Amino acid sequence: MIISIVTPTFNAGSTIGEALLSADQPNDGTEHLLVDAASKDNTLEVANRFPRVRILSEPDKGIYDGMNKGAQLARGEWLLFLQGDDWLPKGTLEAYRRATEIHPEAEMFCGDCEALKNMSGKWESVWSVVDPASKKLTVKNIALGEPMINARLIRKDVFQRMGGFSLKYSLASDRDFLLRCAEAGIRQVEIPSMTYRYRWHAGSSTMTEGNALSEKLRHENLGIAQRHQELVSDNKEAVRDWRAKLAIEQAMNALERPNMKLLIEAFQHGLSSRPWWIFSLCSEIMGALPGYFGRGCRTRTMARSSTMEFNA
Model-level pTM? Predict the structure, then answer.
């Protein structure tokens, strides 16, 4: 049994060494493929220090294109996706190997994961998913929870059968893929081992909360929610809840800026998810009013702009 680790990169020179080193664990049945998108920094120079890593470097259509390419080139029966700025905890590969031996019927495995943030020179956990129920491959968990694609070991034939990652989405295709897997009834087994650590930093494409990619991610997720609401026959309620929640987030963001186009789009999504969505939005607005008045009738965006101007 071979596990193929796939690492897509683009200008990851500052972190790729740690990622590759974390994957260099005792395991005879492992290969590591680095699929680089023609980096301009020292990514390849660092990667070449790891002789066991197979390297492909050529322009691509984004991170999911790189992951699809890696899956296509993989020689193993199992796929594990490691981003160039994250880590595999010690024992990850052995934990997965034991799991495949105990559960030969499984098509996917999911371990624990956590996100680490550098605080005053020390890496500290800012969130984690360890509860077995939260890791189950269900439409509800994938829509309303964390997709955790990197904490999952996936059979290559299942990945191919499901069509891999859609290139329609540049940030949220992993959630779309896992929703399709949940809807198709892919058999997953949860294992009680920490198998992935995300690095929380400003340039991360996976830890997007509060950074410049947040709005784009929300837009993609709304599109995915709409598509799966139209397609899913079972568990549609979870997708509706997810779409309604995303629409409220977009509406509040549009009111903050303000942006009428985004607001209209939010109303379209919200009312298509729940007829009474407008009441949920009103409740959210009422909850935000104390802060608004406390800032002197200024939105958070206006308050941040004033602070920046004062500091300048």
Answer: 0.90
